[in-house]
Amino acid sequence: PPAQKTKFANVAGLNVPAVPPTPTSTSFTGAGSSARGALWANIERDGLTKRALLRLAPAEVAHALRTYHLRVLADAPKELRVDDVLGAQPAPALLALGGSDASPHWLTKLILLHIFVPDASSGGNGGHGEGSTSSRTYARAEVLGAWARVGEAARLAGDMCAFRAVYAGLT
């Protein structure tokens, strides 16, 4: 099948993929996977929220990111020139693969939002306790740990785009 064009949505100033990566491997489906299917349906509808991140295995998130990056690469020009990668106007398909200090990767921005912006649905404390500082600290530590595990899974899978984006978000 022909590669899909990457579409972006401008959500809260983020240039994020309009269609979140969806797992295609059989490890995401199978017997008793209705809860998993509902979780992925929620992710497709709401995006990767903190709550969804904490419910997913790091390897699942890393696999979905790798699948997304491979789709972006499929849309890249077949013959790249130096200007396509490093020039003032990089190839549009390649913008989703990297970032810089001036223009971070969309995943780096998402990680920073997960770390520093409280969930509106949880009363601002990640769903822990009565809004105490220790509860917010615990929720933030959970998110940091989850993203660190996703970054390591991405590194082990060979997805340096995702690994570098996670690394940038955590450092």
Sequence-ordered SSE layout with sheet pairings:
Blueprint (H helix, E strand, L loop, with lengths): L7 E4 L2 E4 L16 H13 L3 H6 L2 H18 L6 H5 L19 H11 L16 H25 L2 H11 L1
Antiparallel strand pairs: 1-2
How would you describe the overall organization of this protein?
- There is one protein chain.
- The protein has 171 residues and is mainly alpha-helical.
- It is 52% helix and 5% strand.
- It contains seven helices and two strands.
- A two-stranded antiparallel sheet has the order 1-2.
- α5 (106-116) packs parallel to α7 (160-170) and α6 (133-157) runs antiparallel to α7 (160-170).
- The longest helix has 25 residues, at 133-157.
- The protein starts with 7 loop residues before the first strand and ends with a helix.
- Residues 1-15, 18-32 and 124-129 have low confidence and may be disordered.
List its traits.
171 residues, mainly alpha, two-stranded antiparallel sheet, disordered N terminus
**DSSP helix count?**
7
Strand order, largest beta sheet: 1-2
Largest sheet entry: 2 strands, antiparallel
Radius of gyration from the alpha-carbon trace, in angstroms: 17 Å
**Structural class by SSE content:** mainly alpha
